[in-house]
């Protein structure tokens, strides 16, 4: 990927995880060509779109669901690679923090260290 032209956009895009960065790049390209906007303008709009759909994207925390012994564990991590060190080679997915709290914990979750 090319580094975004706008310094603020570049700083924020560098905080996105790989999945959301790919989403940003795809969205920026679509906006640039379909709306015939400058790349700089398209990247700003693409970043706003990603942040609108994933409000916690820049907080540096990733929510993982890990299937372990037939049940799901919901894990908050700042380094997803640590999950594989802790739990081995397990299947996991990445989720939006707000959605997980609302859907899995009825809008209220208590964190407990393991």
TrEMBL record:
It comes from the Bacteria. This is Uncharacterized protein.
């Amino acid at each position: 990927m090319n580094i975004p032209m706008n310094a603020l956009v570049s700083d924020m895009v560098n905080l996105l995880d790989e999945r959301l960065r790919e989403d940003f790049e795809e969205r920026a390209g679509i906006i640039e060509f379909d709306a015939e906007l400058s790349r700089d303008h398209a990247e700003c709009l693409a970043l706003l779109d990603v942040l609108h759909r994933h409000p916690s994207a820049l907080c540096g925390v990733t929510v993982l669901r890990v299937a372990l012994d037939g049940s799901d564990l919901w894990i908050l991590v700042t380094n997803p690679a640590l999950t594989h060190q802790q739990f081995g080679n397990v299947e996991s997915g990445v989720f939006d923090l707000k959605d997980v709290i609302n859907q899995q914990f009825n809008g209220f979750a208590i964190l407990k260290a393991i």
